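Dear H.,

Thanks for agreeing to be a second pair of eyes. The structure we're designing against is below in token form, covering all 362 positions.
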């Protein structure tokens, strides 16, 4: 079935980016679901108390309203992250607000957390039969008076449905949101989120892992503070990274000047360097999820060698189609054969020092 969806990929280019996305969600919601073939056991990974059948996950932003997580898992992904979801529904910024940079294989988006809100997503998730690893990514409303309270409410509401929760403080499209990455604000945020998680655990819902998702644009001095706080407050993991507001000089498309966050191939070097910097600072106190520009087995392999225990992608699927998770898994198995590695977990971080030191990336 996924090959039929792939045939639709060139066709979807005829549509404006956001309409093509709506079509993709619709196609997945209609996809009949058989049993998914077993993965190469060498690709299985354990992280924050969860056992992943493979390390390739769908990043947040594709399924903002938790409409198709099981269809995403059926494409071969080892986990699916839905969201970002905010307490109240939000329409986001005016359209057009998603731009394909075709020759660069990138995307710029300034959606601004358009989503149907906590209530609608929670109602949908309450009808789901748990099957596969679901991450729920929560955020704050643009007009919120107390943004930390928005994250706290997200942890309280979604703990019953999530395998893990992501605190997203790195979207460039909600003014001031990334200020929560500064040391003082972050410490308070993480403290209150961890207390909320504890309260949910007391109610018998389970103590769900909390992950922090950061921007690739934080200065290294600020990254020192972020990782120190994450370690002190016993965060379960970090996701590196969200989109960048920088524009690499290599970009060729004229719409590269559009405002918003850049993702895809042009983000790979920067996000992989930040991943390695985070991995080295974390000193294995928690696992790091590597995101940004993964569109091939080679790119996923580099992320893992740079320090990623798990990998996520979104833009790669826009350019390579719905078969991308399967293609990456096949390639990773070949690399493991070639290097005679027993498990993908054995290579995590092997190139972290070199990657962090490289000015142009990996
Ligand atoms: C259209 C679009 C919407 C996104 N929305 C979200 C979001 O709501 N929350 C979030 O944490 N990340 C969001 N992201 C960022 C992705 O999760 C990911 O961190 C980033 O795109 C880099 O990965 P990629 O190069 O594989 O796309 C979005 C990305 C795109 C392209």
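And this is the sequence the design step returned. I haven't edited it by hand at all.
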């Amino acid at each position: 079935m996924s090959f039929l969806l792939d045939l639709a990929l060139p066709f979807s280019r005829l549509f404006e980016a956001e309409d093509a996305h709506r079509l993709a969600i619709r196609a997945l919601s209609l996809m009949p679901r058989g049993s998914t073939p077993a993965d190469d056991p060498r690709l299985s990974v354990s992280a924050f108390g969860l056992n992943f059948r493979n390390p390739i996950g769908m990043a947040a932003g594709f399924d903002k309203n938790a409409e198709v997580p099981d269809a995403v898992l059926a494409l071969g992904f080892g986990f699916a992250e839905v969201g970002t979801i905010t307490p109240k529904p939000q329409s986001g910024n005016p359209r057009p607000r998603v731009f394909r940079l075709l020759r660069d294989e990138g995307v710029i988006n300034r959606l601004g957390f358009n989503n149907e809100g906590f209530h609608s997503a929670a109602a949908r998730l309450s009808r789901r039969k748990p099957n596969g690893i679901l991450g729920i990514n929560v955020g704050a409303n643009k007009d919120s008076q107390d943004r930390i309270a928005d994250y706290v409410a997200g942890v309280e509401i979604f703990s019953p449905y999530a395998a893990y929760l992501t605190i997203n403080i790195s979207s460039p499209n909600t003014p001031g949101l990334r200020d929560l990455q500064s040391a003082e604000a972050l410490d308070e945020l993480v403290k209150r989120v961890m207390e909320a998680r504890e309260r949910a655990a007391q109610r018998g819902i389970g103590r769900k892992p909390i992950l922090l998702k950061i921007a690739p644009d934080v200065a290294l001095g600020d990254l020192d503070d972020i990782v120190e706080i994450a370690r002190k407050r016993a965060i379960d993991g970090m996701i590196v990274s969200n989109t960048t507001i920088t524009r690499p000089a290599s970009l060729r498309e004229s719409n590269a000047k559009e405002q918003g966050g850049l993702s895809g191939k042009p983000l790979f070097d920067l996000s992989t360097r930040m991943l390695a910097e985070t991995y080295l600072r974390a000193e294995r106190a928690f696992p790091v999820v590597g995101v940004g520009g993964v569109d091939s087995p080679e790119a996923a392999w580099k992320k893992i060698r740079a320090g990623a225990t798990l990998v996520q992608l979104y833009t790669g699927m826009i350019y390579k189609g719905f078969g991308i998770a399967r293609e990456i898994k096949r390639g990773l198995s070949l690399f493991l054969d070639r290097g005679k590695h027993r498990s993908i977990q054995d290579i995590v971080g092997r190139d972290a020092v070199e990657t962090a030191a490289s000015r142009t990336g990996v």
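Two observations from my side: The chain has a mean pLDDT of 93. Residues 59-61, 64, 83-84, 98, 107, 109, 111, 137, 168, 171, 213, 242-243, 263-264, 267, 291-294, 313-316 surround flavin mononucleotide (CB under 6 Å).

Warmly,
E.
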